[in-house]
Amino acid sequence: MQNKEKGNFKPKNRKTFKKKTQQNKINEDDEIKEIQSKYDSIVPSNVKCFDDLPLSYKTKKALKECNYKTPTDIQRESIGYALQGRDVLGAAVTGSGKTLAFLVPVLEKLYTQKWSRMDGTGAIIISPTRELAYQIFETLRKVGAKHDFSAGLIIGGKNLKFERGRMDQCNIMICTPGRLLQHMDENPLFNATSMQILVLDEADRCLDMGFEQTMNAIIENLPPERQTLLFSATQTKSVKDLARLSLDNPVYVAPHEQQMTTPQSLQQNYVVINLEDKITMLWSFIKNHLKQKCIVFMSSCKQVKYIYEIFCKLRPGTSLLALYGTLHQDRRVAIYNEFMRKSNVVLFATDVASRGLDFPVVNWVIQLDCPEDVTQYIHRAGRTARHKAKGESLLVLLPSEEEAMIEELTQKKISINKISIDPRKMFSPRAKMEAFLAQNKELKESAQRAFVSYIKSVILMKNKKVFNVEALDTDAYARSLGLVVVPRIRFLQRLKKRQQKQKEGRESASSESSEEEEEEKPVQKEQNKLILAHSSEDEDNDDDLFTIKRKDHEVDTQIGEDEHADISLAKNPAKAPKIVTKAALAKRVLKKKIVANKKVVFDEEGEQLKDPTKHLQSDLAREYENEDEDDGGGIDIEKAKRLLREEDKFDKERFREKIKAKRKAKKQKLKKKRDDDQQELDDFGSDEDDDVDLSWLPDPDKIYGPKNSDEESVSDAESEIHQLPTKLFEKPRNKRELSVSMSENSSADEDEEEDKRSKPIKKKAKKMASKLSVDEAEMLAMRLLGSE
Ligand SMILES: Nc1ncnc2c1ncn2[C@@H]1O[C@H](COP(=O)(O)OP(=O)(O)OP(=O)(O)O)[C@@H](O)[C@H]1O
User: Fold this and answer.
1) Tens digits of per-residue pLDDT, 38-59?
2) Does the CB atom of residue 382 touch ligand 1 within 6 A?
3) Helix crossing, 98-112 with 14-38: angle to 10°?
4) Residue range 485-523, pLDDT digits in tens
5) Reported ipTM exceeds the 0.90 cut
6) Atom 15 of ligand 1, residue of closest alpha carbon
7) From the CA of 100, how far away is ligand 1's center (Å)?
8) What topology is assigned to 266-480 in CATH?
9) Ligand 1 in contact with 100 (CB < 6 A)?
10) How many CA atoms lie within 13 A of 509 on its CB side?
11) Residue 262 CB less than 6 A away from ligand 1
12) What are the boundaries of each domain within the chain?
């Protein structure tokens, strides 16, 4: 087997290799003829070991190397028919070796057809989950190691480009339905026209409602002249399902049918406890089984996520892992491998791990939430006690679930014992959980989501005899998760209201049957909405393309236009264009109950201040806010438009007021400035009444007075300079006079001025002032002002 990801084998010596190949070909031809001649004479009861079957040397050798010597019942009985080319429906208990029962015929079929890399796709094996596909791929790598076929693992979450380019060289494809259809639709290199054999592992799951449309599309694209093998522990016998596959005279092989539906080595127990005690029970169980390997099944991803997170914080003293559909594919594979490796570990999982996975030595399987039906119970429990190994399973039932569920299990010949729990061994982690939730907002939100998700899952179950949402003590359950405040379950309230209305409608004696139908529609609509919402939230199974995943959920055609659009997308998932409208986004936000953070402002008295911009003002809006949510959700566009128009009036008014206030403030500011200026002027004027202040000018008596008065005049000039600003408001009296006097003065003092340019101006003014006329002094003052 050449794994596509590993590259090709290159011989060292070409000549020797060529010779050997030719020789091998001759031998192979003979071998093929020989083994084919024995096909018709296979008697299952005579097959004691794999050597008794007419298999190729390469297959036998690989089987031996993997330590597979004796075929299991299903292998013994089905391989013969498959080699003969018959279509096979194989049913055998979990862990009974169905994987080899189809892988061996696949290898043999291609071998006897002398399939080569150049022949393209010869076999397609479809599995409902990625992990199972991965596991089959790994088994194929081992048992097909001696063959030269190429194999590819084609599952969601992997590199599409990588797969795309290698499609045409892939002989055996192991895939999940969604990804296969995607390649069929989009990849020009995908070519299955010469395909020989189709295998559906977990066939009933592949053919159920969740994969119905995809599988139909896949089957349409496959050649009708092919061999088909279907295997499952809970095989479908539905004529409708089988007709879709156009099987040709299939043979039904079910070695254990008359005896049992679960492995003999599986010890099955159940316990009845209240919903609020589940977490305590689980915690106590883990604490009491620290040295064991356990799988705990829950009904939704959000529950698994929360329980894993909080239990990790509580530190039980053993390894914890969580596997669910919304995890990234690489993470899923890593967790799968880690759980395979470890021996003392607890895996919390959704039903993504319930089918087909072959974890070694699992001691306990706990079904913390009641399975949807017996089929799901069988697959979950079957993760332990595989192939002759021993194992135990514990089904946790609520008092309301016990009677109906046990009856169904008994009908299917499943013997299960009721056990009780020793209350002395129960330790409640509730107080610690509450403390963690109080510290960690994200964890609290995770708990809230887990809570809502569980309630939703119960509502969505079709079997109302087992699943009764009315019987749940939701408040106590919320508290058991560590939540102090019980999250609001709006969909439940709406559903109850509708049911109430429906009841009342029925009770009114005069109501006619047509009226009742009208009443029923909204209820159905509500349930359908939940179905769509829930299925899109919990991506437990393979491909994200599927909107409806659970088997028993029927979607009524009597639904609103929006929902209809959603469903039509779901019906043709790969072809549907992904158009995300604003309305769809809004709906999504509504559905997820995303509430934007609010800023609350309080005044000094502690009264809440209402921001008019954040609160609806109009009467219509208030009426809308107080309205009952009976309209089934959604947006009334017309009403919303009217509401916006009303609110718009208030907004405009607010805006006008804002602008007015701004203008007023601006005006006041301007006025104040003017007043200040005026005040300043007034202040200047007030010193010397309203006359022009000439006090700064040099005293002519001093200037023209006796020479010995020099010192006095300088000091006056100094003081004048300090008073200069007041003169800014005066015009020079005689420009001509000024200029002349200035020039005269400048020429007289030119040399002196030149010498003293670097000296302070005040000093200069000191000397000059003694010789200046009144006008000259004024001019000097002006200049000094300018220079300062
Ligand atoms: N002939 C054999 N001899 C020994 N071990 C075998 C043989 N065939 C299968 N096994 C082992 O039995 C285990 C279960 O096999 P497998 O996973 O194929 O079971 P299954 O019937 O497909 O289970 P499920 O119904 O859960 O999918 C595997 O570990 C496998 O290696």
Assistant:
1) 999 999 888 999 999 999 999 9
2) yes
3) 110
4) 999 888 777 877 787 787 777 776 555 554 444 444 444
5) yes
6) 97
7) 7
8) Rossmann fold (3.40.50)
9) yes
10) 0
11) no
12) 1-29, 38-253, 266-480, 695-786
